[in-house]
Amino acid sequence: MKRVRTVVSSYPLVLASLLVGAAGLVLLAASAPVLASWLVGLYALGVAAWEAIGMIRELLRGRGGLDVLAVTAIVAAVLVGEPWAALVVVLMLTGGAALEDYAEHRSKRELTALLHRAPQLATRLAGTAVAGRSAAGDPRADPAAGAGTEGTGSPAEPMTEDVPVEAVRVGDPLLVRPGALVPVDAVLVSERAVFDESSLTGESLPVERAVGERVPSGAVNGASAVTVRATAVAADSEFQQIVRLVEQAAGSRARVVRLADRYALPFTVLALAIAGIAWAVSGEAVRFAEVLVVATPCPLLIAAPVAFLGGMSRAARFGLIVKGGGTLEQLSRVRSAAFDKTGTLTSGRPSLERILPASGFAEAEVLRLAASAEVYSSHALAGSVVAAARELGYRLQEVTQAAEQATNGVTATLADGRTVRVGKPSWLRGFAPGLDPVALRPGELAIYVAVDESPAGAIVMRDRVREEAVSSLDELRRLGIERTVMVTGDVAATAEPIAAGLGIAEVHAECRPADKVRIVSGIQPRPLIMVGDGLNDAPVLAAADIGFAMGARGATAASESADIVNRFDSLAGLPRAVRIGRDTVRIALQSIWLGILISVVLMLIAAFGFLPALLGAWLQELVDLIAILGALRAVGPRSERRQREGR
Questions:
Q1: How far apart, in whole angstroms, are the C-alpha atoms of residue 342 and residue 345?
Q2: 107 and 309 Cβ atoms separated by less than 8 Å
Q3: Chain-centre distance for alpha carbon 397
């Protein structure tokens, strides 16, 4: 009953049209055809007047055209004695909004599913929030210990309170029950836990985490209750960032949706011309109305938006958040691609190969100093340096101040007063003139370390090319990408062997953010898609025709700058996005032309007097439905949906 009330309140004109139609049928049954015609005709003219007001407003804004046909058809049908045909056109107009809402809801199903998964509540360990924040630096300090066993939990569970996720603060200890969502970004306090992170990363296998490891919001806990400590508030957590991107995508409208407007004026002129000629040649005014009732194509108004929303929903099913339908249009025409290297073409998780200390420094000291500074870096390689130091059991030194220089490196001031710099050799030479580059083998990269004004050494690592990189680039070329370019902040000795292995002939190395923007702006042919993942890629992602962010690791700046965010850590999403863009535009154009073609055929039939107005109006309703169902093909084939859902 509630749903019925919602439908009635949302679409009152639909209900009114049905009630007027029912009343007219009752009058016909009561042998009052004249009264029935007056009732239906006056109602139709009233709706036409209401629509005309909106039409005039649109025309004054420089838009519109198709409403002219609908209003003219209603008035003409009533004037030539076809009020019931006019009522069917009215029903088409008033029911069009309901039909569009249904189609949009169907096409956006994958997008809205992500929104519905957003965590709403968190289970906080009661009475420990203040203490938890004071001990936030030590994830091993389990706040559940000694918390008592009273409250909402079981006898083996500490006292808890359920709070809105917005009430969680950094440092709050949280209990995550089996099968529950992690409400905010956190670190694991329990010794070990297993999480399902497939909705965030696309990895189907459960992920095992140890004490102190980061757990992203939106991950699903395994079979045992665990304790975590919040490291971010809800608004800054990973899943909420995804939600904001999805809301932006769901609320957007494609520029190509206006593609229908390109055909509005020519189609209106054509329809009026056919109707006028039919009237003039036949001498029958009814021909004018018969032509126009089949010249009100909802496909031009609805099918294109539905197709683009369907394409965005299809992309979301594969972890691709497309922020606007205009991006899908650009994807359908993309001809060049530029790539960052680290974390984009490579895994971004390099392993330690060797340490080359400078005179006066030991290997362990070089790694420990570098890791102490890299804790404060957002670069994709920083985490690997820190992980290598921790795996070897090195204790990091206390840092009193740190600052990152985008694309160059990080500077950290230690508690003992020394200044440690970690980054590219070209940058470090400005502080440590004696620094010399080290010899590297193909596929290796070096991270240089300086202490005060002296070189401390280099850390040599190897970053593996993504397993799917070769096949993804090959597929891009098959899809018509004519030019591929690598634009990286890394040195040429590291970048060129990787590019050669992937068939990328053009490499621009040691690029700063401004260099990347300049280089990408000059690449032809266009449109161009730029693929990156880090903070230093944010400017060039915003400057490119299409910015594609590998956002699986929460690179916020890159995700916000990009037009497409790949939530899954796989480059295979790139050719998939291009394919979805092309499919979507093709289906949208097919839907538009289908509506035009069928309407023109029906107009010609009506012009020769073979299509009564009432039958033509009902046929037009059928055409609308066919075109919209065709547009829903952009959601993707059923087999693809089943494959993604694992059925």
A1: 6
A2: yes
A3: 40
Pairing of the two strands 336-339 and 528-532: parallel
Q: How confident is the model at residue 256 (pLDDT cuts 50, 70, 90)?
A: very low
Question: Whole-angstrom Cα distance, residue 306 to residue 343?
Answer: 35
CA dihedral 472, 474, 480, 481 (to 10 degrees): 70
Cα separations in angstroms, 406 against 229, 264, 377, 420, 553: 30, 49, 9, 16, 18
Spatial distance between the Cα atoms of 384 and 462, rounded to a whole number of angstroms: 10
pLDDT at residue 505 is higher than 90: yes
Residue 236 is among the residues annotated as catalytic for this protein: no
Helix %, strand %, coil % for the chain, to 5? 50, 15, 30
**CA 75 to CA 71: how far, in whole Å?**
6
599-622 pLDDT, tens digit per residue, is 899 999 999 999 999 999 888 888
The closest alpha carbon to 252, from 108, 360, 418, belongs to 108
β-strand pairing of 220-221 with 121-125 = unpaired
The alpha helices in 392-481, defined as continuous H runs, are 425-428, 469-478
Alpha-carbon distance 107 to 121, whole Å?
Answer: 29
Catalytic residue, chosen from 142, 172, 185, 340, is 340
Give the residue from 238, 245, 263, 109 showing the smallest Cα distance to 560. Answer: 245
At 610, is the secondary structure helix, strand, or coil? coil
- Give the 3-state secondary structure of residue 228: strand
Radius of gyration of the chain (CA): 32
The verdict on pTM exceeding 0.85 is no
Q: How far is CA 486 from CA 316, 441, 520, 541, 599, in A?
A: 27, 19, 10, 14, 49
For residues 505-519, give the mean pLDDT: 90
**11 Ramachandran zone, left/alpha/beta (phi>0; psi -120 to 50):** beta
Contact 558, 548 (CB under 8 A): no
Contacts 24+ apart (CB under 8 A), 507-512: 510/424, 510/426, 511/407, 511/487, 512/406, 512/407, 512/408, 512/536
Domains of the chain and any CATH numbers: 11-109+252-308+582-645 (no CATH), 121-180+185-231 (2.70.150.10), 321-346+465-581 (3.40.50.1000), 351-462 (3.40.1110.10)
- Give strand ranges (E) for 323-434: 336-339, 351-357, 399-405, 409-414, 419-423
Place of tokens 């949009």: 104
Q: Give bridge partners of residue 404 from the DSSP assignment.
A: 410
Q: What is the average pLDDT across 206-232?
A: 89
CB within 8 Å of 477: residues ≥ 6 apart? 484
DSSP state of 465: B
